[in-house]
Backbone:
């Protein structure tokens, strides 16, 4: 598996997939920090809640970044017709999927760690203390949300020859992730994969009345994580079964 990961890494570097995803998530980070600046300085709001809640722009840009990344790493090989060669040499489509899934998952895990680390440093530089438990919950939630999107978008990238359709689905996911962010407080909203980043955020937006609001620590986060893990297991089983049935790739 390590050798397969090294090969995937080498192939992906040629497509500039990493740089595009990094730029998008850097935009998300800066967008969050700039747009939340006034809230962060407000004494009426929890500073940590302002930074780690279900209203951040990650819900918009995460689906877009993942769809672009998966599209590029798959389309590069499809254009070169290397999938047929790999299948002919005895490498199953499921193994191709697994190696690309591992690479993409590790990459977006790294993004989640770096993003959370930079936000935490930003908080410390402004005199706010971020508990380690909150940072870990943020990384875990963002990674699990990323993993569900990676599994689905990578599957679609392998079975859909027109990558423009996949990119359209990525932008649609980002749009609905942003528009429906307020719905992520509902326990059932995990069924929509593009809402994962908000669903698993440590803090949730809470409207007090028509003119005031705050961010409260999600008391059901443990249950949410459990439900989302079960959801991921179902997605993985269904996707792997469909890939196994597909056979060779075009």
Residues:
């Amino acid at each position: 598996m390590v050798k397969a990961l090294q090969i995937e890494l080498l192939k992906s570097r040629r497509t500039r997939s990493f740089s595009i995803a990094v730029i998008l998530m850097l935009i998300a980070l800066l967008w969050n920090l700039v747009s939340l600046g006034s809230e962060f300085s407000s004494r009426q709001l929890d500073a940590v809640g302002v930074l780690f809640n279900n209203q951040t722009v990650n819900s918009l840009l995460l689906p877009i970044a993942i769809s672009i990344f998966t599209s590029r790493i798959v389309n590069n090989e499809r254009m070169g017709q290397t999938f047929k060669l790999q299948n002919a040499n005895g490498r199953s489509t499921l193994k191709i999927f697994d190696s690309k899934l591992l690479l993409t998952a590790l990459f977006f895990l790294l993004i989640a760690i770096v993003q959370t680390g930079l936000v935490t440093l930003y908080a410390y530089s402004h005199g706010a203390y971020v508990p380690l438990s909150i940072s870990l919950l943020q990384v875990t939630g963002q990674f699990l949300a990323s993993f569900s999107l990676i599994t689905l978008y990578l599957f679609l990238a392998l079975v859909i020859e027109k990558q423009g359709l996949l990119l359209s689905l990525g932008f649609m996911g980002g749009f609905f992730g942003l528009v429906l962010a307020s719905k992520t407080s509902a326990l059932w909203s995990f069924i929509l994969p593009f809402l994962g980043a908000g669903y698993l955020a440590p803090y949730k937006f809470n409207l007090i009345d028509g003119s005031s609001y705050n961010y409260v620590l999600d008391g059901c986060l443990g249950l949410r994580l459990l439900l989302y893990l079960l959801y991921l297991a179902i997605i993985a089983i269904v996707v792997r079964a469909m890939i196994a049935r597909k056979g060779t790739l075009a």
Notes: The mean pLDDT is 86.
